Amino acid sequence: MAALIQFADVQRHYGKGEAEVRALDGVDLSIQAGEFVAIMGPSGSGKSTAMNIIGCLDRPSAGKYLFQGVEVQDLDQDRRALLRRHCLGFVFQGFNLLARQSALENVELPLIYKGMAKSDRVARAQAALEKVGLAGRAHHDPSQLSGGQQQRVAIARALASDAMVILADEPTGNLDSQRSHEIMQLLQALNRDGITIVMVTHEEDIAAYAQRLLVFTDGKLSHDQPTPPLTRQGA
Question: Which domains, ranges and CATH numbers included, belong to the chain?
Answer without folding.
Answer: 5-226 (3.40.50.300)
